[in-house]
């Protein structure tokens, strides 16, 4: 309080001059460099006030604070555009997935501009950089033995002649009997679901009854990471600022033992898997692919993006 009174008494003329970063904004030696991202809004809807508050407003407030503190700040965001929700929206509107993405990316950008959200760059995930970076990360995981291949039982719609990714299936939840559960989770009880566990499953596209058939997929071999992850978590919990909820969920995953996580889907709309046997069959699952969007959006902003994402000293 005393410092605030003193600053007020000295007046505006005594304040440090506002920092004017160069364009593009890059880390500066000797300054506090702050990279801010918002959760990437999904591209299949028109944002409303709840989306603004829950997604971009808090980060925007923090970005403005950082700039007022004369910290060298970069704030990026963009639309998340791959995955089953885009395909289903395209079917609903009679458009291609790319046309859906173009339509709703423009709507999102216009709305955030109207709200004066202070992005340094607002991008999207359907870009060549997204493909390049996601496939590079995949190749590094493959080379280091962190991927495995396995056969899984999956629902296939014989009328549509396609394997059904999780959101293309609806049915009755096996845990709480909610009749409109999706093939990946139940929105009523919150449990994660394997689509083949649903009771009375239906293809969301044609309402036909799918059959169970085997198909090949790639998995992230998470059990291999447990030995490295546990000491890192202990150190991070001791020195970081984790919420109680984040600690609880992470501990429960570790306590139960990490399981291999499927990173591919039988879809056409997404980043292609650069591996023989999968090139024409599947794309990367959105939760492998989408977080990489933070990197690729920054790469579309500046070709020196690694100075932000691979620069722990700054």
TrEMBL record:
GO terms for biological process: methionyl-tRNA aminoacylation. The keyword Metal-binding does not apply. Its EC number is 6.1.1.10. It is found in: Cytoplasm. It comes from the Eukaryota. Residues 34-312 form the Methionyl/Leucyl tRNA synthetase domain. PROSITE patterns: AA_TRNA_LIGASE_I (PS00178). Pfam families: tRNA-synt_1g (PF09334). The keyword ATP-binding applies. GO terms for molecular function: ATP binding; methionine-tRNA ligase activity. Belongs to the class-I aminoacyl-tRNA synthetase family. This is Methionine--tRNA ligase, cytoplasmic. The gene is Mars_0.
